[in-house]
């Protein structure tokens, strides 16, 4: 039998660290990563034939569950018609229309292949439109790995304990101001000092790459207001939250605009629209706040597991992109027909029921984890943003990156391996969100496997020892 260890050794011989994205290497939990052989619904199987209930869900895209038949069929049909043409296809238009329907702010949409490209292009567009160079980002927010967005970037950068990446010229880092997340005053001061130089503020819809840290009430609206006042653009990065935390992402969830048209045969709600249930707790976010980001970025769920991402915004801004405008952007595989087919099938499947299901699954798991950690006396705080959640081993609520880093991170690895031993696959870092799918809902065996693992996992976190200095 091929073991995970064999596969990891072979991979390490030809791939740096054996992986194509750093967190997959299990650096912060130690040990050998599970090489996945296949997945279905809420489950994955590794190369050794072990079955796991999955709480990674490809870091977000698998909202409907793995290998959903509607999505696989759509991809198969598209594949039979040809894999890529380097010419426009109707599926791009259909997906852009589906996105605009859910987030009307995205009057026009440009497809790219990764979230990194989406945010990189949004920054270039903001600089091109404003004629300014300075960017504001927030510590612990991750926007992909382009040069100007890697400072204090959360996700794998946080897991590796890096302030940033080598290879980013100082002159480029100097154009990015990194401010503490959830700190309105810091943003006000930055604008007061350098407002006329700032091209854009980029911020996650809800921060979910340093663990899950929802924006405080007023934080995003104030960013929007300051941008408007100073002629800068607000880029709301919904690569992770988009179409995962509500039909219209974090923007829809927190503005109370998370509407989908009623499915055929449903009559409830005004004018054929009805609201989706709001997840129980969102860290004190006030719903019904209104603000208008200028540009939004999407990824993860919109590709349904295939490489696809997008940026969207007002038509007058988006029309500044080539070929209409002077801001260049292109991609050989951009808007790939298989990716668009997977994305369309995923969004078509992601009805109000699906969002209700992932909220309920998240409530169940987060609630059980909270209770078990309480029973064991483990200091902790469950960060929550819609169906996204993560545990911080912290006495106090975590509202920013400093708080996330100050937690007892060493409690995570023992808890991770206890879950693993009991057949539950967690994201292998304390700085990552836990992801659930609609396929977890109603699968009693899968849910019980998670719930049964929680008491011993909480005990493992309680018994963990801090590293010797
Ligand atoms: C995942 C992520 C990205 C980067 O997307 P890739 O497809 O991995 O390049 C950007 N922004 C946020 C908020 C993300 O979670």
TrEMBL record:
Gene3D superfamilies in the cross-refs: Aspartate Aminotransferase, domain 1, Type I PLP-dependent aspartate aminotransferase-like (Major domain)
GO molecular-function term, one example from the UniProt record: glutamate-1-semialdehyde 2,1-aminomutase activity
This protein's record includes keyword Cytoplasm: yes
N6-(pyridoxal phosphate)lysine PTM sites in chain numbering: 300
Localization terms from the record: Cytoplasm
Catalytic activities: (S)-4-amino-5-oxopentanoate = 5-aminolevulinate
Associated pathway: Porphyrin-containing compound metabolism; protoporphyrin-IX biosynthesis; 5-aminolevulinate from L-glutamyl-tRNA(Glu): step 2/2
Enzyme nomenclature, EC number: 5.4.3.8
The protein's required cofactors: pyridoxal 5'-phosphate
Alphabetical GO biological process terms: protoporphyrinogen IX biosynthetic process
Keywords, in A-Z order: Cytoplasm, Isomerase, Porphyrin biosynthesis, Pyridoxal phosphate
Xref: PANTHER family: GLUTAMATE-1-SEMIALDEHYDE 2,1-AMINOMUTASE, GLUTAMATE-1-SEMIALDEHYDE 2,1-AMINOMUTASE 1, CHLOROPLASTIC-RELATED
HAMAP family the UniProt entry points to: HemL_aminotrans_3
Protein's UniProt name: Glutamate-1-semialdehyde 2,1-aminomutase
Gene source species: Mobiluncus curtisii (strain ATCC 43063 / DSM 2711 / V125) (Falcivibrio vaginalis)
């Amino acid at each position: 039998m091929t073991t995970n260890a064999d596969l990891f050794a072979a991979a390490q011989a030809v791939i740096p660290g054996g992986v194509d994205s750093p967190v997959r290497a299990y650096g912060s939990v130690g040990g050998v990563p599970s090489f996945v052989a296949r997945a279905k619904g809420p489950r994955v199987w590794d190369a050794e034939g072990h079955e796991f209930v999955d709480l990674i869900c490809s870091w977000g895209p698998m909202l409907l569950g793995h290998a959903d038949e509607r999505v696989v069929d759509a991809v198969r049909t598209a594949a039979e018609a040809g894999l890529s043409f380097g010419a426009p296809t109707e599926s791009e238009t259909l997906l852009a229309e589906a996105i605009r329907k859910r987030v009307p702010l995205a009057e026009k949409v440009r497809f790219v292949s990764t979230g990194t490209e989406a945010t990189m292009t949004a920054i270039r567009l903001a600089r091109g439109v404003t004629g300014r160079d300075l960017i504001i980002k927030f510590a612990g927010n991750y926007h992909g790995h382009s040069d100007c967005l890697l400072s204090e970037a959360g996700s794998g950068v946080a897991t590796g304990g890096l302030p940033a990446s080598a290879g980013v010229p100082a002159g480029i880092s100097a154009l990015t101001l990194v401010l503490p997340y959830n700190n309105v005053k810091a943003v006000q001061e930055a604008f007061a000092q350098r407002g006329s130089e700032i091209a854009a503020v980029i911020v996650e819809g809800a921060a979910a790459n340093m663990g899950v840290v929802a924006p405080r009430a007023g934080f995003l609206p104030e960013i929007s207001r300051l941008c408007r006042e100073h002629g800068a653009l607000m880029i709301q990065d919904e690569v992770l939250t988009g179409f995962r935390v509500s039909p219209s992402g974090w923007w829809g969830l927190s503005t109370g605009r998370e509407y989908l048209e009623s499915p055929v045969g449903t009559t409830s709600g005004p004018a054929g629209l009805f609201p989706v249930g709001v997840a129980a707790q969102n860290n004190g976010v006030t719903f019904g706040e209104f603000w208008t980001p200028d540009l939004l970025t999407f990824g993860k769920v919109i590709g349904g597991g295939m490489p696809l991402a997008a940026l969207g915004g007002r038509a007058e801004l988006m029309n500044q992109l080539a070929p209409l405008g002077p801001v260049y952007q292109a991609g050989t595989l951009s808007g790939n027909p298989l990716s668009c087919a997977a994305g369309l099938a995923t969004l078509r499947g992601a009805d109000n029921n699906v969002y209700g299901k992932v909220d309920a699954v998240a409530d169940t798991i987060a609630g059980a984890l909270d209770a078990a950690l309480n029973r064991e006396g483990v200091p902790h705080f469950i960060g929550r943003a819609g169906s996204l959640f993560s545990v911080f081993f912290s006495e106090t609520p975590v509202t920013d990156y400093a708080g996330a880093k100050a937690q007892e991170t060493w409690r995570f690895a023992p808890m991770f391996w206890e879950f693993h031993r009991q057949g539950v696959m967690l994201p292998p870092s304390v700085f990552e969100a836990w992801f659930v799918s609609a396929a977890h809902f109603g699968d009693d065996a899968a849910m019980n496997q998670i719930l049964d693992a929680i008491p011993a996992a909480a005990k493992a976190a309680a018994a963990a020892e801090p590293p010797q200095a």
